[in-house]
Structures are given as structure tokens and as C-alpha cells.
Amino acid sequence: MTKDAIIKDFEAIVGSDNVMTSETDRHTYSYDAAVLDSVMPALVVRPTNSEELGKTVKLCNDNGLPLTVRGAGTNLSGGTIPHPGGVVVLTNGLNRILEINEQDMYAVVEPGVVTAKFAAEVASKGLFYPPDPGSQTVSTLGGNVAENAGGLRGLKYGVTKDYVMGVDFWDVDGNLIKSGSRTVKCVTGYNLAGLMVASEGTLGVFDKLILKLVPPVLAAKSMMAVFPSMKAASETVAAIIANKIVPATLEIMDNFTIRTVENFRKAGLPTDAAAMLLIEVDGHPAQVEDEAAKVEEICKQNSASEIKIANDAAERDAVWQARRDALPALANLKPTCVLEDATVPRSQIPAMIAALDEISNKYNLTIGTFGHAGDGNLHPTILTDKRDTKEWQRVEEAIEMIFDRALALGGTLSGEHGIGLAKSKFIESETSPGTLAYSRRMKSVLDPKGILNPHKIIG
Amino acid sequence: MADIHQLATMLKELDDQLVGCMRCGMCQAVCPLFAQTGKESDVTRGKLALLDGLASEMLKDPEGVNEKLNRCLLCGTCQANCPSGVKILDIFIKARAIMTGYFGLSPVKKAIFRGMLVNPKLFNHLLSFGSKFQGLFTKKADDMLGSSCARFQAPVIGDRHFKGLASKPLHKIVPELDTPAGKSGKKVAIFVGCVIDKIYPNVGEATLKVLEHHGVGVFMPAGQACCGIPTISSGDTSSFDKLVEENLALFEKGEFDYLITSCATCTSTIKELWPSMYQGSSANRMKLRDLAARTMDISEFLVDVLGVEPAKVGGNKTVTYHDPCHLKNSLGVTAQPRTIIKASSGCEYKEMAEAGTCCGSGGSFNIAHYDLSKKIGDRKAENIVNSGASVVATSCPACMMQITDMLSQKKAGVNVKHVMELYAEGLR
Ligand SMILES: Cc1cc2nc3c(=O)[nH]c(=O)nc-3n(C[C@H](O)[C@H](O)[C@H](O)COP(=O)(O)OP(=O)(O)OC[C@H]3O[C@@H](n4cnc5c(N)ncnc54)[C@H](O)[C@@H]3O)c2cc1C
Ligand code: SF4
Ligand code: SF4
């Protein structure tokens, strides 16, 4: 079929307003939040209901057109960078919350619903949806499921996968596949919903999501503890967990990040501290009091020089503002900011932090480190200028070494940002050849023409 | 027309600023235009990518990029919320100037800016002529709001409900002023602004009444020109420079502590764009920097300098407040106008939802993209109505016009006032 004829066919499905073909429109869907080169798609299509979405997928497959689904395009691994000459399918026209079931505590949503809007809507009904990626004000639930996004509350509440009860998705031939159910337990057949989590648009296109909701948090207490070394701070993390306390949030910041945040917005942070932990315990009020006291004691035992407990909402907000400012403050320093995702078993955090120190020295790079220490997920952030080709070369080498070290410490390539294009070439170093071959076989059966987000994850 | 390579070279000048965008996409959460269209080219990240694409000669369609670049309210919400601190408005305005240099100014804009706006006398004369005849073509829409609509089908007016030209502009009511400082010991210069002068002279009068009440001396020279925002946002740097020079020459003649305006748009233009976008002599640039440092919104002056505080509790009318983008996003002034409303006799303050989101006016955006402007404005009007207030106050006459249009079309029964009007009404 000619290109014009294909465009007409897409227009017949979604209407001409929802098919974008101009150079300018296509260019604005050629990138995402990853620091990678952009690739122009041939077409951008925006379905606005389930039927249109299914027909769009089928039309792509019938014509052998590579298809990349795009939510908000905030992923940090190139998952939405299109295939040259392919089609970008937008989900922001599919943004309805179809049901919030208060009694059975689940919700059914379309994939383009914005995460924070959903969480707010759920909260207004007295329920709680915990996954809170830093991008939640724009990221979509479909994108969250496809990346298995995490967030600040990962330690105690888990990540997106822990809230996915079911996924309805279009297979590549345009059949609607239903997986999972509205029940808490469901072991009927293969766990296809589980397969869809973290699939990055390579196995099917989500049409609806069934998401688990939980009761709201009754009470919470936040604190900030200052340490003389990153080692002491990271050992405290291990000690808190070893004492069988699971805070809702347990975040770490190194000295460079603390200073940068304080410069960004004066909040009275201890700029001479080598490291800081930001901790929140939550649950029943009595339990919160008890755990907060224990955490304070553990911090002291691990040579914390200062512990500040937030006494009211304003003080609590100040603690978390400091954490929220970490990325913006660092990003303000240099033109290019590469937010990495080094994840290791919690006990290996001190070793990973030492490795990052060594890497920043070896490659003479500025690296600020903060992250979800409690779940072993660090965000070393490399500050550079991509236009400086020599330095950029060193950045690429440093990134590779960060992965190497994380893997050597029993960690993983990605804790939450996905593999996409950025890390697909490294996947072999984490999985066995057999695992990769099995994954490729699965992909080729489910998507014989290889049109669903080609080259992502498994290369 | 210069060749596209030359355009790319010119846009390369923006490279250092463009590279600051880390393409995180967080601007999608705040852009009022993106909220309506959901198109990446309508949000900052997309526009910056387009400029970058043109600068690196990846794109070959400057017309297309220009069209997208102009679909923007220049509300600055994205800039105020960009985690990477990208100077977005600066980039957009410079890019528009470069694009206008490349394509040339449209004949209509050329006629308006260069033939009329830069010549305040002629501009005033033409509009006073217009004010006499406007009744022939328009009819009353809403008495309380003082809005009108087209009598016949009219191409430019469409279904707008607008506030017509005042029968007597401020420069006719109070041609000029130079009074000494009274009990406050302070003297201010007043920059009136076109919309207050020609459409809302009552806001100008209220401002003067308030300043007199507080014993503030006023320098208000005759012959003030437009602040230049319509010219610079269309990329017409030469008209902009002319307007800035005309104004500078007038205000240089007076002695005052602060330059005050009751128009959020003029305040932000004088404070931010005069020093950054004026291309003339370095001596003038120095003077503009000094003037900018002394420029303030009227509520900011009343609260931060004079120390006006809420004095009473309760009131017989409920008032809500809409934050003009130019005050909130560009200058960070949000508390002071609310303080003034709470200090205004008879006013009970009630915050509306999304008080800080754009009303959709965006200056000439309203003319070029009325459908989008109206959609954004409708949401604002809904929030105003839902607040239950009987009056919506704001600090920018351009927002007043847009909100009046939206509320009048809805027959919402909510009045629109400038903060100074409310405050002045309560002064004995
Ligand atoms: C400032 C910032 C902070 C961030 N913080 C976090 C964080 O704390 N934790 C974290 O985990 N991530 C974080 N991220 C990364 C990113 O926001 C997440 O990966 C998020 O889940 C992506 O959502 P999205 O809607 O933008 O998806 P997109 O980026 O549009 O897409 C992501 C992937 O999902 C696929 N996809 C999208 N919709 C569908 C669908 N309907 N069906 C099938 N596949 C689909 C796409 O093809 C792509 O492979 C952050 C990013 C930024 C820029
Ligand atoms: S928020 Fe700022 S850095 Fe992020 S995409 Fe928008 S303009 Fe770029
Ligand atoms: S200035 Fe306003 S309308 Fe323009 S891109 Fe930024 S937020 Fe959107």
C-alpha cells in the first residue's frame, strides 16, 4: 500500500485530526527523557477509545509498520524512541478512569490516565494508590506498568507490579486479550498480566488496567539524620532493615547533592554533612511512635551527628522538599544530566557507594548520588555537557562501569528506569544466553513480524 | 528571504540555552495549552525540540516550526516549574525575533506596530475616534460586566463578549501628574499601560485614589507609549526598541522611588523584557536596568513598601482572586494582591481552585487562536463560578478582558474587578 493510502486508513479509524504527518509534529515524537539521539517516526496516531486502539494495532501489523506506544514520554531509557519510519501510537486520548471500586478496593482505568491524577481521585474516595514515581504529575499508568515504575515508597509498599491485578491488552493481530481479574487471588492460566509488567510495549498494547488499591495511611513521621560519612549512612540503612523495621521511605543524599540542594533553595540543610538519610515511618499511630523512636536510636548508634524529627505538616514537607529538589538542583548545574539507576541488594549499598566514588575519580566526572537507599536503588547523577565529545566519551565509559559494578555486587541493570534502547546492549551481561534466547523466542511467537517496539529490551 | 542555513546559524545562538532542557517532560503537567490539546508540539519540550531541530538543520520546515512556536500563550508557567531552570520565555521571545527577522513581519502587524503603536499621539487619536463609533457595530451583552458583543456577524469579533473602549480614556481624565510625597514619604512614577488607559480608565483612577489616600507622591507623565509587549512577542524588535526609548525619555524627566503599574503584563515587561531585549545603546541599557530594579506591581508596593495589612474581618461580598501569569510566574507576586483584597472593606476572601492557572488570554494568542483561548478561559470561568464568589478580582487588565468575555458568555452573574478598584471602593 502507498503511504497516502495507509494514512487514509489510519484516518478512517481515528479521524484526520488524530493522525499527524507533518515534519514538525513527527519531530516532537522523536525523543523521550533519555539522553539518546532522536529518531523520526513516519506517522503519529492518537486513538481515543478502545476500538480505535485495537484497529490501529492491527493496521500496523497488517502493513508491517513498527509501532511504538507512547504515554507521556518520560521514560529514561529510550523506550519511546520510535523505529525509523514507524508509527507512534499515543495513549493520551485514552484517559478515562472507568471504575473505582471502594468496597473491593480496585480500579479499572485506561492506560493514558496520569498517575498523580489517578492517585488524587483515589484519595478523594478514602483509598490509597502508593506507586509514586518522581514523574507522577505527567507519567501515565500505562507507562508505569510497561516500565514497572517505582517511587519513594517502594521499600514498604512495593512498585507498580505489586498493584497490577489485571491487564487487558491488544495482541499484535488486533485481538483483545484479557488477563488477571478483579479478585485479590487469581491463578487461572498463565500470569499474562505479570508478563505485561515491564514489557515496555514489546509484547502487547495495554487497553485497560485493573489496579489494586489499599487503605490510606493513618499516621506518618518523617525525620532527617545527618552522618559523618556515606559509609555510616549506608550502614544505618542496613541496620534499620536488619532490625526488622521497614520505613515507608528511606532515602539517601551525598554531600555534593546536599550542598547543591541547599544552594538551589535555602532550607537550612547541613552542608558540611557527608551524608543525610531522609526517613518516613507510617502506619498505626502507636506503631509509628514506636518505630520512629527505634529508628532514631539506630541512627544514633551508627554515629548520626544530628537527627531532626518533623513535628508538623510544614516540617514534614520541608524534609521531602529537600528530596524533591535533588534532581532539579543537580540538573541546574550543567547542561546535560544523566540520571542513572544503579541497584544492588541493600547490604551492598556501602560497596556501591564506594564504587561510585572510585568511578567519579577515575573518569574525572561530577557525580551526585541520591536515591532510594532502602530498596538498594541509587540514582548516581552525572553532570556533564553532551556537546563536549571528549567528556561524553568518558561519561559513556563511566555508565558502563556503573552497570558492571552493580552486577558484580549482585545487583541489576535497572531498578526502575527500564532497559529500552539505552541498556539493551548490556542485557546479555545480566541474563544468561539461555534466558535471552527464551525471551527472544517468546517475542517472536507473540509478535512474528517484530512490529511491537522493535529493538527495545532484548535488542 | 534568507536561506535556511542562515536561519539555523542564527538559532544556534540559542544553543547554550536550549541544551539546558533535559527533555524530562515535566512541563506537560502545567502548560494550559497542552492540557487542552495533548499535543507535544504545544508544550515547551516540543517547542524547544523544534527550535533545536531547526538549529541543527535536522528540520527543513521553518514555516511549520514558526507556526508551532506561535501557538503559545507566553504565560511562563512552564518556566516557573521547569526543574532544569530553562529560561523558556527568553528562548521563545528571542526565537520569535529571529523568526520574524527571517520571515518579515506580517503586513497587518507592520501597519499596527510601526504605523500606529510607536506613535502614541496617533494611536490615542485613532482609538478615541473608534470609541465614538463602536456603538454602531456592537450591542450590550451584560450590564454588570459592561460587556458588548457584535451587532452583526463580524469576522474579528466573532462570538466574543468584550469590554469596549472607554468613552474617555485616562489620559483625557488625568492628562498628567507630578505631586510631592505626602505622609508616606514616598513618591512613585505611574506607568499606565494601554489597556488601563483606553479600556479601564476606572482602574487608573482607583490606583491614583489609593496612592493619594496613602500620601504617596505621583509622577505620571503625559504621552506614555505602549510597554511594547505586543511588538516583542511578535518578534518586532525595532518597534519594541522605539517604544522603550519613548518611555525611557519620559520617565527620565521625573524623580521617584519606584515605578508602579497596575497592569501585571506591563510590570513584567518593564522588569524583565526592557533590560533583556532592548538592543539600543549601552547607556540606555544601564538606565533600563536601574528602572527595572525599581519597578513594582501596585499591590506589591502597597504591602511590601507601605505595609498595608488586612484590617477587618467579614464583609458583604465574596471575592476570589485570579493570579495573572505575568505576576505569578514571572515575578512571583501572589500573596500581596490577596492581602490587599483582605484589607478591602466589605470583601470576604475565598480562594478558587487553580487560581494560578492561565485565563487563556495570552495577548495576541486570543486573536490568532480564539477557540483554544476560549477553552482555557472556560475552565477558568468554571473555577470562578464554583468558588461561589460574587466578584473575581485580578491584577491585570488583559486578564480582566478575557475573564469578562468568558463570564459574560456564560451569563455567570459574577463581576470582574481589579484589586485596586475593590480597595479604592472601601476607602473613605
Ligand atoms: C523527572 C523524572 C522522574 C522520574 N522518576 C521516576 C521514579 O521515581 N521511578 C521510576 O520508576 N521512574 C521514574 N521516571 C521514569 C519514567 O517517568 C517512568 O518510566 C514512567 O513509568 C514512564 O511513564 P510514561 O507514561 O511517560 O511512559 P512512556 O515513557 O511514554 O513509555 C514508557 C514505556 O511504556 C510503553 N508503554 C506506554 N504505554 C503503553 C501501553 N498502553 N501499552 C504498552 N506499552 C506502553 C512505551 O512503549 C515505553 O516502552 C522518571 C522520569 C523523569 C523524567
Ligand atoms: S520541564 Fe524544562 S527541562 Fe523538562 S522538558 Fe520541560 S522545558 Fe525541558
Ligand atoms: S509559556 Fe505557557 S503556553 Fe507557552 S509552553 Fe509554556 S506553559 Fe505552555
TrEMBL record, chain A:
Coiled coil ranges (UniProt) are none
Protein name according to UniProt? FAD-binding protein
- UniProt organism field: Pseudodesulfovibrio senegalensis
Record keyword Oxidoreductase present = yes
Q: Where in the numbering of this chain does the FAD-binding PCMH-type domain appear? A: 37-216
Q: Which family does it belong to?
A: Belongs to the FAD-binding oxidoreductase/transferase type 4 family.
Question: What cofactor does this protein call for?
Answer: FAD
Q: What are the protein's UniProt keywords?
A: FAD, Flavoprotein, Oxidoreductase
GO MF terms here are: FAD binding; oxidoreductase activity
Automatic annotation (TrEMBL), chain B:
What does the UniProt keyword field contain?
Answer: 4Fe-4S, Electron transport, Iron, Iron-sulfur, Metal-binding, Repeat, Transport
Entry EC no(s):
1.1.99.14
Q: Which cofactor does it need?
A: [4Fe-4S] cluster
UniProt keyword annotation of Amino-acid biosynthesis present: no
Reaction(s) the record says it catalyses:
glycolate + A = glyoxylate + AH2; (R)-lactate + A = pyruvate + AH2
InterPro entries the record matches: 4Fe4S_Fe-S-bd, 4Fe4S_Fe_S_CS, Cys_rich_dom, Glc_ox_4Fe-4S, Helical_ferredxn
Domain 4Fe-4S ferredoxin-type: start-end pairs: 10-41, 60-92
This protein's source sits in the domain of life called: Bacteria
Manner of cofactor binding, per the entry note: Binds 2 [4Fe-4S] clusters.
State any single GO MF term.
4 iron, 4 sulfur cluster binding
- UniProt enzyme class: oxidoreductase
The protein's matches in SUPFAM superfamilies, at most eight in alphabetical order, are given as: alpha-helical ferredoxin
Its job:
Component of a complex that catalyzes the oxidation of glycolate to glyoxylate.
Q: Which PANTHER family match?
A: GLYCOLATE OXIDASE IRON-SULFUR SUBUNIT
The entry's protein name is: Glycolate oxidase iron-sulfur subunit
